[in-house]
Amino acid sequence: MKRLNPDICRRIRDARKAAKLSQSVVAEEVGCKQSALSMFEQGDGTKISEEAVVNLAKKFGISLDEPSGTGGGGDVQPTLSMSVPVAGFCPNPNCPTNHAYLVDGLEYRRPDRAAADPVGGRFCAMCGEVLEKKCPGCGAPVHDGAVCSFCGNPYVAVLQGRG
After folding, report:
1. For residue 105, is it within any domain?
2. CATH number of the domain that residue 38 is part of
3. Measured between alpha carbons, how far is 41 from 28 in angstroms, rounded to an integer?
4. Is residue 13 part of a domain?
5. What is the C-alpha separation between 140 and 147, in angstroms, rounded?
6. Alpha-carbon gap, residue 40 to 109, rounded angstroms
């Protein structure tokens, strides 16, 4: 299978979830194993046949030729070059990799991506939570800091401030 744009994998995963279909059901329908579909949805297209990818795209009405962020809806999504692995952050506010600080009485958590994701993995090295590699609010590439510079949402959701 040729190298896929990870955005296509994410859009197919999102479409499957929106349709409330399990990976097992979809995998059987398109002719692959559930484990291969799981890896595909994480951006690894090496374990799934090209025929299965075409079937997935047809099933959910997603063009394989369409560049990232040009879905016709007018929304331009920030893109990220996937040549360098992105260190993820742990979305668990209680994880020791997220450092608390106060701003105007509101508590924020600054993710320490190096501590949470020292090897570019899928799970937090400290607590085992599934890592986020993009802003949960807008899908923009993550950067050092606690708040997304594209949408202004904090990376790690925290309950009301203590102040």
Report:
1. yes
2. 1.10.260
3. 15
4. yes
5. 11
6. 31
Residues 90, 130 within the same domain: yes
- For residue 73, being part of any structural domain is answered with no
Q: Are residues 160 and 90 in the same domain?
A: yes
Asked whether residue 76 is assigned to any structural domain, the reply reads no
Burial class from Cβ neighbours inside 10 Å (0-12, 13-18, 19+) for residue 144 reads exposed
Residues 113 and 42 in one domain: no
Is the CB of residue 23 less than 8 Å from the CB of residue 37?
yes
Tens of pLDDT, residues 141-152: 888 888 888 788
Please state, in angstroms and rounded to a whole number, the distance separating the CA atoms of residues 65 and 1: 15
Cα 111 to chain centroid, rounded: 16
Tell me: the pLDDT tens digits for 27-49?
Answer: 999 999 999 899 888 877 777 88
DSSP secondary structure, 85-115, as one string = PPPPB---TTSTTEEEEEETTEEEEEE-HHH
Is 2 exposed, middle or buried, given 0-12, 13-18 or 19+ CB atoms closer than 10 A? exposed
Q: How confident is the model at residue 83 (pLDDT cuts 50, 70, 90)?
A: very low
The C-alpha atoms of residue 12 and residue 15 are separated, in whole angstroms, by 5
CA distance 59 to 117: 34
